[in-house]
Design brief:
SH3 type barrels; three-stranded antiparallel sheet; 21% helix; elongated; alpha+beta
Length: 134
């Protein structure tokens, strides 16, 4: 029994050519049907079920940077991962443990007493004692 290698070679090339043409067709079709004018319209958040602290005076204890005048509005302390919600100049930021706040302050840890940030080797602490509204 003699195997015809040329036949199998041509069959394989034809199959690869068919798959390539199929992919090329859909590539050209995707360029032709691309969206022309994208507009993103986000609706404002109105009814939120998350409650935050509304205390006006939150002490920023142990801070040594005059630019670090954030107020803690909420936090989540956990053994594996923590996050805080801070506010400065009517802007609210949510920072997870290990992430940067405004590309400057790294959140190191959060517990029941303090949220600890680090900036250029300096530890900055914010009190996490919240006054909740009833």
């Amino acid at each position: 029994m003699k195997i015809n290698y040329i036949f199998f070679k041509r069959l394989l090339i034809a199959a690869m050519l068919l798959v390539s043409c199929y992919a090329l067709f859909f590539l050209i079709k995707s360029f032709a049907l691309k969206p022309t004018n994208l507009e993103f319209k986000f609706l404002p958040l109105t009814n939120s079920t998350i409650s935050f602290s509304s205390s006006e005076e939150q002490p920023s204890e142990f801070t040594s940077s005059k630019d670090f005048n954030y107020k803690i509005k909420g936090y989540r302390a956990n053994s594996s991962q923590a996050s805080v919600i801070v506010e400065k100049n009517n802007q609210t930021f949510v920072v997870q443990q290990g992430a940067l706040l405004e590309n400057k302050y790294k959140l190191l840890s959060v517990d029941g007493d303090y949220a600890t940030f680090e900036h250029n080797g300096t530890l900055l602490k914010l009190s996490t004692k919240l006054i909740l509204d009833n």
